[in-house]
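Holo model, iron/sulfur cluster. Inputs:
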Amino acid sequence: MSIPHRLFGRTGLSVSRLGFGAMRLPSRIESGVEVLSPGQAVALVRQAWDAGINIYDTAAAYGSGQSEVVLGAALREVPRGQVVICTKLEANRCASREEFRYWFMASLARLGVERVDILFLHGLKLQSWEERILPRGLDREWAEWLAAGRVGSIGFSSHDTPDNVRNLLATGCFAAVILQYNLLDERYAGALAEAHARGMGTAVMGPMAGGLLAGEDSVWAEAVTASGVRDQRELALRYVLQQPFVDVALAGVTDFAMLHHCTVTAEKDTPLAAAARPLIARAQAAHHCRQSIYCTFCKYCLPCPHGVNVPLNLKVLMLAEQHQAGVVAQRMYERIGVDPLLPGKTAVFCTGCGQCARRCPQKLDTVDLLHRTRRLFGP
Ligand code: SF4
Ligand code: SF4
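Output:
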């Protein structure tokens, strides 16, 4: 068995339906233990290639550029024409074409390549497109890169409102898009379908909702059984892959077991059992009733001027409120800032300035959530 491929819209690229999302590379610490080192990350990417994944997505912002370094090192021996390398740049932060070019060249250097197959504008908003990117002539800059063969295609990723994303799609300036989509979050289903209809390559991030769908939750048990899948993770990934408007699911792979599970799942190119549909819908409804926090642990809210580790505090709150793990949550909260592997400060140090809330792509009211965390765990 092998992972099926698909034409990635008008980029003309043939891509594996499972893509490697390198957001969490080059290293990872979990429950106080380093479970992935940069050396292991290189081995993980190589294993992904051996398992049949040919599309890799990173960004200049991931790991302060080190994600690109690891990805480039891992793929160096792979024939360049067979692998699809994508990276992202925060064009809205570039004040001029010269600055944009500087950051693009820096990405190429970190990746150790002459060209990238797709350059995505990272976290594009309609407002920054209209007020910064076009007036600064950044589109004319990437037109030169396209002509010179330094970039194969231009796309964008976004957390803007679905209506604004549709307006960005309507510009006709992009060949591919990355949007969030999973069993818990179908806000961008319409935008993805529109992108697909426009002939764009469509990739989704967060197919397992930042790990929230990777565990065992009784809400999904009936849907798992009726779908004939092994577990919740397989249900989540196959649900995404069976949508006609999804070309690629970018899984944020961080360990070998997860990589194996994802590749075996992606090899199954069949839709979930039709009889499971009502049970999936029921589980989604039950989850939405219960769900009040949807943090993907992306860390875009950091840094906090007072050192509060916002995602860690929210993880603790979610464990307690949504995953019936109050004891584990309390212990973890008490070790924040004490255990060097749970860095930063607790919600107690939050002054409510709101900076983190303004940076959160999920539009979470982090000030209120941190207040709730403090009330629940003290002191
Ligand atoms: S609070 Fe928002 S920005 Fe911060 S980690 Fe969670 S989802 Fe990301
Ligand atoms: S609201 Fe609180 S956690 Fe967020 S940036 Fe301000 S002080 Fe830090």
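The longest strand covers residues 151-157. The domain at 5-287 is CATH 3.20.20.100 (TIM Barrel).
Archived with the compound record.
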